[in-house]
Amino acid sequence: MSGRVLIAGIGNIFQTDDAFGVEVAGRLVDHPLPDHVRVEDFGIRGVHLAYELLEGYDTLIVIDAVPMGEPPGTLVVMEPELGARPTSSDPDDPALDAHTMSPDVVLATLERLGGSVRRIFIVGCQPADLREGMGLTPAVEATVGAATNLCLELLTDVAPIGKGMPA
Description:
By secondary structure, the chain is an alpha/beta fold. The chain is built from five helices and five strands; from the N terminus they run βαβαββαβαα. Helix 1 packs across helix 5 and helix 2 (46-53) crosses helix 3.
């Protein structure tokens, strides 16, 4: 395996708190990171995320707004089981719309393309509002710094510098 890590901010900047992942990715870009770590704002371009993963990454950290039924701004880190993703072999499946691909569909697409990733983490935030609009709500905006730190902590755990990883 390559030891490479992709941190992917996803979401729609025109739907209020759905821009959470994009905002956190934007903050992470300002941090010094090892050469084997790439941070990218994928926005709503899920199919581009699937193709980027074909370039050979061991770990994917997805940052996204995740409705969980919790108070707005609640943060969570999840490590989904790799074999538990739903797949669809129907090419006309509406879930394959390149602009609205969920992380599950992105990973199923990656598998169909012959790629894989060893570990996946989702850093999620409970949105307050997903309606059309620009800018995060105050509850979600207040968590962007903590979410950025969560991503950096995850990175320290999954890809520490010096343990056989490229620096």
